[in-house]
Write a structure and sequence with these properties.
The structure holds two protein chains of two kinds.
Chain A lengths: L11 H19 L2 H8 L3 H5 L5 H25 L4 H14 L2 H16 L1 H27 L8 H20 L7 H16 L12
Helix pairs in contact in A: 1-2, 1-4, 1-6, 4-5, 4-6, 4-7, 5-7, 5-9, 6-7, 6-8, 7-8, 8-9
Chain B lengths: L2 H19 L6 H8 L3 H7 L3 H15 L1 H4 L5 H12 L5 H18 L4 H21 L7 H20 L7 H15 L10
Helix pairs in contact in B: 1-2, 1-4, 1-7, 2-3, 4-7, 6-8, 8-9, 9-10
The chains are: A mainly alpha, B mainly alpha.
Chain lengths: 205, 192
Amino acid sequence: MSPRPTTGHVRRPAILQAAAEVIAERGVIGTRIADVAERAGTSAPGVLYWFDTKDELLTEALSFADDRFYAELHGELAQLDGAPARLRRIVEVWPAEGDDEAVLWMELWVRALRDPEVNAARERLDGRWRAAIADIVREGQATGEFAAVDADEFALTLGALMDGFAIQLALRDPAVTPDRVREHCMALAAERLGLGEAHDTKSVR
Amino acid sequence: MTERSARERILEAAAERIAGDGIDAVRIARIAMDARVSTALVHYHFATREALLAEALEYSFETAGDVRDAEGDPVTRLRAMIDQCLPLPGELERDWVLWVELWLRAVRHPELRPTAAKLYARMNDWLRAAIEEGDFGDVDAAAIADRTLALIDGFGVRALLGDPAMPLERARAEVWNALAGELGLRAAAPSG
């Protein structure tokens, strides 16, 4: 009796976890479905049961890693006192996230150049990150810890600055260190939000 | 046909094809056909895809070099420099696609990192020199150049991908406003 194809017995999260690891190591082009299956302890049909293409696997794996990242981040932020400390934490976790996350983002950018669906997924993930920053800014404005700037504009600028530095970190530019990147980001926050000064809460929108 | 012109044709064709198809998918035979040379000659000049990408990028940057020597007063000059660094339609957009391909490729292939580091250092020196020559008072030109380049990449990649939150004009305005603010020029920031 021939063995039946094993499909669906390995759960989706296990496959996504494996996919995120393998893609970060080898890239989308260098990743074979069989590699992901092996890492997840299943067969290629077991992977293809859930995902039709490698690009789908990439975007889903990133969403999965993202969900986990935010769950952890929100837990950590809840324990911190005050919006400035929370913002500092956001700036700290990004370069400290390690190379894997930055590499997956680069994969996403390159694939997004030529694939509208990947680009849509990238926009969604990027919007979520900016919203996380903007939420902290609004909290700080409500308590008078931050100046009354446009929270979404600030999130866009800080997000762009962090990404630009993440590229240089991932390329291991000797002139750029995680500590230096944090200094730059906090300098931007201090300049735009006026960290540590008292602000009038009435003018906050 | 001289050796030099064949090499240049290969680099021009490579820049065009890599930007179109991506470094992973591009076919060397296609580049050879565009450049009107044999596939063997492409392989002779460029042993690996990494070498071809690195040289095509350098070539593309160098051919854009004449416009990089912007003239005028310091503010006009810095504004022109920012424009040269963003993915404006045409050759700059093509350079940008190669640039994004280089980021990922260099992470996967460490032998490309010196190329990336060299290009970053060149941009950084160029920007820092313009800030220093502009006589903007007591500013940290090196730190400002670092931040400006990071902002250019962060905003530029979004503009390149057509992110609705970051159209090109907005990227230009954002990068300029950030730089103008650091140089104490905020009030004088032109709108266009």
